[in-house]
Design a protein that fits this description.
single chain; 5-stranded mixed β-barrel; 6-stranded mixed beta sheet; 19 strands; alpha+beta
């Protein structure tokens, strides 16, 4: 579920600010509603404010201004252990002197649960992550991936309705990280819990989330579904941060609604979709995804633009070929092509024409 307003939100940040020194704001007037059962990711570079928001929700940091609501209740003054929130950290935070079973039983014991109930819940949580056979081992006897599974099980063992995850897969290798992404997503779907997830990895955010809040400089730059973020970025920061992206500087020559005619810095005129563009004459960066670029004019849809290009480098990446081109004065223009039988091979120094559908070109604010 996605919360359409603070009134139907399970978690809500209302005009939340955070300052550590009383002068500069790390989080600037955050308003964010999260629906019950939603998987929301806070995504952004280091220092963007995303982890601070998560720590305020967990209760480990206090908001300087504003309210944080959980299921309709203001939790600003509620201590962390009374919020009933599960938490998974990057460094696992397992007790080294306890066995796996004891690590999971600890939060249940704190809640005064009987031994038989504790044992049943520990078994259920370990079964969820396929780790019951490790119940008597200590964390030092487990691999990094196994420890992360135990940390996840411990966060789920007391049946929280809300689970917070702070860069939980950052210490794992690429293959295991990708596998754990799907495991966490499947657990979220099967249990119906609300997940707030923090990462700087945009691929992770696109794979796992119902919605993604892209943070920069203490503010949400865009809040949208993964497909909307990728296909319809609202500003240049989001376009550059989410996926690989070509950018061509230019000036708005004509503007009619969301249709813009852009004169590139080298003089070429191209059509683009105007996003947050206010007036004719405004500077812009035209954003085009590499996979939307074609180099055979006969493959392009009617009305597509073609433009001269020079091949600078071709990189073989298995399923795709990545060509770096010089286009309209830009040396870093990228085109991605599927590696299929009969695909024309390009070579450095070759002069070609490339093109794209005008709807795939977005005229954004200049960075």
């Amino acid at each position: 579920m996605v919360a359409s307003s603070p009134n139907d939100a399970y978690v809500a940040f209302e005009h939340v600010q955070k300052s550590y020194d009383g002068v500069s704001l790390v989080v600037k007037d955050l308003n964010l509603s999260i629906g019950k059962g939603e998987f929301l990711t806070m995504l952004g570079p280091s220092g963007s404010g995303k982890t601070t928001c998560l720590m305020m929700l967990a209760g480990f940091e206090t908001a300087t201004n504003g309210r944080i609501m959980l299921n309709g209740t203001n939790i600003n003054e509620v201590p962390p252990h009374k919020r009933g929130i599960g938490m998974v950290f990057q460094n696992y935070a397992l007790f080294p002197h306890m066995t796996v079973g004891e690590n999971l039983a600890f939060p249940l014991e704190v809640r005064g649960m009987s031994k038989s109930d504790r044992e049943a819940k520990v078994k259920r949580a370990l079964d969820m992550v396929q780790m019951y056979s490790f119940i008597n081992r200590r964390p030092a006897q487990l691999s990094g991936g196994q420890q992360q599974r135990i940390a996840l099980a411990r966060a789920l063992v007391f049946d929280p309705a809300l689970v917070l995850m702070d860069e939980p897969l950052g210490a794992l290798d690429k293959q295991l990280r990708e596998h754990m992404q799907f495991e966490i997503k499947h657990l979220h779907e099967s249990l119906g819990i609300t997940v707030v997830y923090v990462t700087h990895d945009q691929g992770e955010a696109l794979t796992m989330s119902d919605r993604v809040a892209v943070f920069n400089d203490g503010r949400i730059q865009q809040l949208a579904s993964p497909s909307d973020l990728y296909e319809r970025p609202e500003n240049s920061f989001v376009a550059q941060f989410i996926g690989e992206n070509n950018k061509l500087p230019g000036t708005i020559e004509e503007l009619s609604g969301d249709k813009a005619l852009v004169r590139l810095a080298t003089g070429e005129l191209i059509d683009a979709t105007a996003v947050n563009i206010k007036e004719k004459g405004q500077k812009t960066l035209v954003s085009i995804r590499p996979e939307r670029v074609e180099f055979k004019p006969e493959m392009m849809p009617p009305g597509a633009h073609t433009i001269a290009a020079e091949v600078l480098e071709v990189i073989y990446m298995g399923d795709i070929l990545r060509a770096v081109l010089k286009v309209a004065g830009s040396d870093g223009f990228v085109m991605k092509m599927r590696n299929t039988l009969g695909q024309t091979r390009l070579s450095p120094g070759q002069k070609i024409s490339v093109g794209w559908d005008p709807q795939d070109a977005r005229a954004l604010d200049p960075m």
